[in-house]
Each structure stands twice: as structure tokens, then as C-alpha cells.
Amino acid sequence: xxxxxxxxxxxxxxxxxxxxxxxxxxxxxxxxxxxxxxxxxxxxxxxxxxxxxxxxxxxxxxxxxxxxxxxxxxxxxxxxxxxxxxxxxxxxxxxxxxxxxxxxxxxxxxxxxxxxxxxxxxxxxxxxxxxxxxxxxxxxxxxxxxxxxxxxxxxxxxxxxxxxxxxxxxxxxxxxxxxxxxxxxxxxxxxxxxxxxxxxxxxxxxxxxxxxxxxxxxxxxxxxxxxxxxxxxxxxxxxxxxxxxxxxxxxxxxxxxxxxxxxxxxxxxxxxxxxxxxxxxxxxxxxxxxxxxxxxxxxxxxxxxxxxxxxxxxxxxxxxxxxxxxxxxxxxxxxxxxxxxxxxxxxxxxxxxxxxxxxxxxxxxxxxxx
Length: 370
Ligand code: ZN
Ligand code: ZN
Known about the structure:
With 370 residues, this protein is an alpha+beta fold. It folds into 2 domains: 5-141, 3-Layer(aba) Sandwich (Creatine Amidinohydrolase, Chain A, domain 1); 144-361, Creatinase/methionine aminopeptidase superfamily (Creatine Amidinohydrolase), CATH 3.90.230.10. It is 34% helix and 21% strand. The protein has helices at residues 5-16, 29-36, 68-74, 87-97, 112-124, 137-142, 147-168, 177-190, 252-271, 278-291; strands spanning 23-26, 51-55, 59-63, 79-82, 102-105, 130-133, 195-196, 201-204, 225-230, 232-234, 237-238, 241-246, 303-305, 312-316, 331-334, 337-340, 344-347, 350-354, 359-361. The strands form 6 sheets. Strands 4-3-2-1-5-6 form a 6-stranded mixed sheet, with helices on both faces. A hairpin with a 4-residue loop joins strand 18 and strand 19 (359-361). Helix 4 (87-97) packs across helix 5 (112-124), helix 7 packs across helix 8 and helix 9 (252-271) packs antiparallel against helix 10 (278-291). The radius of gyration is 23 Å and the shape is elongated. One zinc ion is lined by residues 229, 240, 242, 349.
């Protein structure tokens, strides 16, 4: 097989397999893209534009008539197989040909119904295949970014920053959150983003106490916090950026909360590096916020990995069950926030690339000093 980026990634994947697996069935759209180059993003959770079956020495992309040409154009080094009657029957045939007995599958992505149908077809074909949940194999591989991935994220972030600067200049009393959100979408697209990384968050006044508020008819007003969180997608890769604004002179409360979130973020950015436990990373910001009595008001993780997916590994979470060691080459967000019901919130979000000895902040946009 030729040495395409796909074959290198497939090799890396195989080196991470538990020895028992004969093959892995990849269902996550970002995982499928990462390994095959096929850029389709499934429009709906319940419909797939293809499953990737990787054995120890071959890789097949199973897809249907609607996607087969597209897949053949993009999936270099992958054998594209079109199924016409049923995905299950075609999969069963391949499993038989390849002598697969233990099949890993992505339980985080394959729906229960898809799993049932596939397993039934395989059983009906008379094959004794053991299905084994194998979550996180490809996600783990995606965690450390290659130079071309870092470059795509930098481009996405540059478009995102330009857009936020322009939109910030249009903020005015009386404009609705939804109007500002549309302004963001339009400008991101016009600047060349292939898509939004996620629907923009514009949360004003009391709405800004909800970290993931959906922009609506609420009108911006002087003296109230406005959280704007946005991101472009370029070559499949996401950017993620948040700043908090206020129209007119800020009051004491805003100054105090804003200053605390900014200090917590700066402290985290200075202390972060690869090799750290994710809980220690989170604590860099959380301890400062908690010491000022706002621990309960910082109800989410300090940050998350960003890549082909807007939220991916690692999670900079305070929780033990999500603990992990941060890897060099990871791109993460650093986004402390304080949210007070009835008043509103402040969140500041940068992106950073982890090195052995430091975190390189990728975000170049400065801060509004209120
Ligand atoms: Zn964000
Ligand atoms: Zn984020």
C-alpha cells in the first residue's frame, strides 16, 4: 500500500490495539475522517454516510450509492465498498472474508439500533463474531495534533478573531442576541470559513448565567454582561473563542468578576503544560476562583480538546473519572467562567497548544480591560 497520511494513521491505530481485536469498526464521523480522509460529516445521528472497517492489514469504507464517488475521491489507500441491500449483509461478507472473530466497535457512536441490526445480520450469516466495545482508540490518536492540523486550527482561529473584532464594534443597546449571532455567522462565512464550528453563543444580561444559552430576542442593554462564544471551521478543524463584553461603564460587580476570571485564565495559561494530570490543570484556575468564594459558580471544566470535533479529548475536568495525563501536541481551550443566576456571567476562552515545558497560547486577540 502507498504511504498516504491515512496508512500512517492506520498503522498508528493498529499499534494501539489490544492484541485480541481482529478488526475495529469505526462509526464516529471525525474518527472515520481522521483515518480515511473521507470528509463527510453525518447530518443526523441516526444515519451514517459510511462505516470504516479496519483489520490488521486492510481498511474498508462501507458506504452507499449517495456517497460512493465522494468516498473514492477522498479515501486514499482505503478500499471503498458500496452496499446496496444492507450494510449488515455487506459487513458480514467482509468479516467472513477477513476471518474476523473479535470485532471492536465504537460504542460511543454506533446507536443501539444500528448495533442490533448489524449484529443480527452477522449472526444470520452464520458467523460467530464477538462484538467488543472499544471506545476512545481513535480519539486517543487524535489528541496530539500533527503540524498540518495545528495550521488548520490556526487559520480557523484567525478568521474567528477577525470576526469577533468586527462584531464587537457593532454591539449596541437594543440589538437582539439573535441579530448579533447572525452577524457572526454571516461574517465567518464571508471570510472563508467552510462552516461554523458550532452555533454562536450570544448571551446577554441574565441569560449570560447560562454557559450554553441559545441566542434569542433578548436585547442588549447598557451595564449588563454579554458573553460571545464563536468558532469557524477550516479544513474540518474547529476554533473556539469567547470574550465577555459590557456596554457603557461597568459596575463594581462586573469589574470584580471579570478581573477574577481574567486572573484565573492567566494563571492557568502560565501553569499549563504537557505531562500534567488534567485535574491539576483545572485546579490552576479553579483554586483561585474558589478561594474568592465563586467555586460553585464555575460549574464546568476549565477546558477541552479541540480538533475535528469542537469538544474532544482531553477534558480539563476536576472529576476523577475523566482524569488523564495531558499530551504534548494537544490543542485545548482555557475557559474559566463565573455564572450568577439572575445577574449573568463572565467567560473568557483562549486556545493553547501544549508543549513539554509550557502552553503556547494560540489566541492572539487581546482582552477588553473593563
Ligand atoms: Zn467556546
Ligand atoms: Zn470551548
